Amino acid sequence: MHPWLRFAMTERELTLAAVRRTRAALVAACCLGLCLALWPLAASAEDADGPEETPPAAAANAPASAIKTSGLPVPRFVTIRSNEVNARTGPSTKYPIEWVFSRRGMPVEVVAEFDTWRRIRDREGSEGWVMQGMLSPKRAVTVMGEPRTLRREPVPAARPVARAEPGVIGQLVHIKDDWCEVTIEGYRGWLPRTEVWGVYPGERLE
User: Fold this and answer.
1) Whole-angstrom Cα distance, residue 54 to residue 38?
2) Contact 189, 170 (CB under 8 A)
3) How far apart (Å, rounded) are the C-alpha atoms in residues 145 and 134?
4) Each residue of 39-92: pLDDT tens digit?
5) 33 in helix, strand or coil?
6) How many CB atoms lie within 10 A of CB 86?
7) Quick one: the chain helix, strand, coil %, rounded to 5?
């Protein structure tokens, strides 16, 4: 009897209302007078910490050499490096937090880059900006749809190794034709490409 590999963790969480865009806007409006009064002091502090990040709206007018990118393909799949990664509405810590990704090793897709920030998308379509250091180039996949059978060989009739429930994450080892070799909680086997999220059609991984 092959084992069941279960998923019982939340992939992402809505942040508290205190960090939502609407609350941030309200606080900013209420504190406008104080912000104006302390503007010279804040400007001095920013100068001491280093150059301010270029906002996206100004990117078009900035010299090409001023905007760094990784040079890697976009889009591409990566994984979350930590159990708590803040996804913001824009590529700077000045933007409010929209999501908190709370599952290390979860596959996400990089869909845009801006300096040291990456805009990522999860399997449910939620997007946000995170620091590049919060992402790992290691690959993983998420089981989709319904319970799936992990098989010993990349053929439909191969011996079952384990059963994996939807949402279970496996480390991606190899892609062969229409099959993905993965490891899940110590079990190693093959799943059809169509049963997981985290790989592209026709992609190869040796």
Assistant:
1) 22
2) no
3) 28
4) 443 333 333 233 344 455 544 444 444 456 789 999 999 999 999 999 999 999
5) helix
6) 20
7) 20, 35, 45
Q: Cβ(60)–Cβ(118) under 8 Å? A: no
Q: Which residue has the tokens 């205190």?
A: 18
Residue whose entry in the numeric block shows the structure tokens 């960090």:
19
Check if the beta carbon of residue 12 is closer than 8 Å to that of residue 83: no
Give the count of alpha carbons within 13 A of 63, CB side only. Answer: 2
Q: Exposed/middle/buried for 36, CB within 10 Å: 0-12, 13-18, 19+?
A: exposed
Domains of the chain, earliest start first = 12-133 (no CATH), 140-197 (2.30.30.40)
Q: What distance in Å separates the CA atoms of residue 95 and residue 89, rounded to the nearest whole number?
A: 6
Q: How far apart are CA 20 and CA 187, in angstroms?
A: 40
| Class of residue 43 by CB neighbours under 10 A (exposed 0-12, middle 13-18, buried 19+) | exposed
Q: Is 191 helix (H, G, I), strand (E, B) or coil?
A: strand
